[in-house]
C-alpha cells in the first residue's frame, strides 16, 4: 500500500537558516492497517503526513502509494492519484458554511466530473455510512462538532479511497465525541478494509490504534509493528 524510502525534507535556504524537518525516514504500511503517527510538537509527523498525501514534495527520497511514485508523474497525474487513492480528514473540518452536508460531501466528485444525480447518490450513501442519514440537508452551523467531523469523514470516503489520512481529527472535540469518532474510524477500518493513518499527540487516541509509530526530531524512533523495538528511519 505505502512504501517510504529514505525520505528527507528541508526548509529554508541551503546552509543558511536550513531546517531539517525529516531525516532518513523509512516506513511500510500494508493494506488495511490502522496506524497512529504520534510524537511531540515539531517532531515531523504533520510534515510526513503532507508528504504521504502528496500535498508537498520531499527534498530527497520517495513515497510510493499503490505502486506509483509521485516522482514519475506530472502535476495533473499527481492530483488525479491524490483524488482517487487518498481521503483527507483535518482537525478544523474545512466545510463550506453555506453548503448542506450533502453538498459538502459531493464536492470531491464535482472535480472528478461525476454527474449531479450520481454524486448526490454517492454522497448520501457516504453520509449514511457515518451515521448522518437524518442530517444530509443540514448546514455546518446546524450540526454539532462531532457531526461536522462525520461530514468531513464522509467527504473523505465518498470517492472510495484506499488510504485515509487524518490530521488531529479529534483535536477540536470533547473526549466523549472524540471517542465516538475513533470508534467510527475503527469500524470503517474493519468493515471496509480501509488503510488509516492518524496524526495525533493524544496518547489515548494513539492507544486505540493497532499500530503506533513514534516520531522525534524528524525520525521514526519507535514502531509497534516491530514489537516495541526502536527503529531508525
Written overview of the protein:
With 233 residues, this protein is an alpha/beta fold. It has 2 domains: 1-91 and 164-173 and 187-233, Rossmann fold; 97-161. The chain is 34% helix and 28% strand. The strands form 2 sheets. A 6-stranded mixed β-sheet has the order 6-7-8-3-9-10, with helices on both faces. A 4-stranded antiparallel β-sheet has the order 2-1-4-5. The chain is globular.
Give the radius of gyration. 18 Å
CATH class of the largest domain: Alpha Beta
How large is the share of residues in beta strands?
A: 25-35%
Largest sheet: 6 strands, mixed
Which fold name fills CATH's third level, the topology of the largest domain? Rossmann fold
CATH architecture of the largest domain: 3-Layer(aba) Sandwich
Average per-residue pLDDT, rounded, comes to 90
Shape: globular
Topology record:
Blueprint lengths: L1 E12 L2 E14 L4 E5 L6 H8 L7 E6 L2 E2 L5 H11 E5 L10 H11 L4 H14 L15 H13 L5 E5 L7 H18 L2 E5 L3 H5 L3 E6 L2 E5 L10
Parallel strand pairs: 3-8, 3-9, 6-7, 7-8
Antiparallel strand pairs: 1-2, 1-4, 4-5, 9-10
Helix pairs in contact: 3-4, 3-5, 4-5, 5-6
